[in-house]
Amino acid sequence: MSIALLRIALPAATEILFLSAAMVCVHRAQKNKIYPAFWQLLTFLVASDSIYLLDAVGDGLHLITGPHAYSVYFYTYWVSFGITAILILRVLHEMFRHAVRSIPGVQKLGEPIFFWAISISVILAFASGITPRTSGITLLLAAAQVLMRSQSVLALCMVTFLAFASRTLGVSFRSRIFGITFGFGMMAVGDLVYTAVFTYHSSLASAANMGQEGVYLGAIALWAGYFLQPEPARRLVTMPVTSPLMRWNDIAQTLGNPAGQIAVSYPPTFMTDVFDLVENVMGPAGQPQRVANPSSPIAS
């Protein structure tokens, strides 16, 4: 196997190992159904890395020709690149919903905000790639890159949101919600730094590429660690009635999310007093009459 193929096969095999370990930890914690979008992302990443590995091994063993191996790698990379960006957006939305589940009004209001943010990111991704000299494949590649940068910025915003609002939302830094989001934040920083220096260092063996791979594996290892250890119990959300977050929640409830209901009880003698007052006022025949000294406490 050539050096170039080894540089593709070795990272792919390492990623499969790390991702498989993370999936085992998630499954042992019985959180694959609690975080379905995150589980789907891990499964898709393992599948795409497996294709890279099989392609490199097939080329090394001369089972397929070099041009065919490059075509498989090229199209698999860019298709999985775009799909991964979309899946990460779904996971970030999932983490947001779990983070604000204690505040149902804000959770309900945040769903359309995420929808429009993702829609605008997709539109900008395609619009930014349109130039007079852009062909079909170049447009798709440019759109995938911008979409990935959009989710990187969204991941950093999500990490910042959880870092400042964790106490209010009852989400601990040891929570898996924070751990998953922080892992995407690490990837986002690595992708943004790699994009900034990609023009000057585009080789697979460059320091930028190796650094990005190290950050990627570190994020996966962080996920495995968060799911391997017990998660602390979530704190109750307590806030003053004058809190801006409480007012936002009330506004969201008014805009469409039904408000909670409470049970109101009366003292046992309340209805008896009401019946006595009506009986004294209406009389035994149901006719109104003047009452000089009603005995009911309500009339006093």
Short description:
With 300 residues, the chain is mainly alpha-helical.
What this model shows, in words?
With about 300 residues, the protein is mainly alpha-helical. The protein has two domains: about 5-255, Rhopdopsin 7-helix transmembrane proteins, CATH 1.20.1070; about 270-300, no CATH class. Helix content is about 70%, strand content about 0%. It is built from nine helices and no strands. It has helices spanning about 5-30, 35-60, 65-100, 105-130, 135-170, 175-195, 205-230, 245-255, 270-280. The radius of gyration is 30 Å and the shape is globular. It starts with a helix and ends in an 18-residue tail after the last helix. The relative contact order is 0.10.
Topology:
Layout: H1 3-28, H2 36-60, H3 66-99, H4 104-128, H5 136-169, H6 176-197, H7 207-228, H8 244-255, H9 270-282
Q: In total, how many domains does the architecture comprise? A: 2
CA-atom Rg in angstroms: 30 Å
H and E order: HHHHHHHHH
The overall pLDDT, averaged over residues, is 74
Counted by DSSP, the helix tally is 9
Secondary structure category: mainly alpha
For this structure, the CATH topology of the largest domain is: Rhopdopsin 7-helix transmembrane proteins
Strand content: under 5%
What low-confidence regions span 5 or more consecutive residues with pLDDT below 50?
Answer: 257-266, 290-300
Number of strands: 0
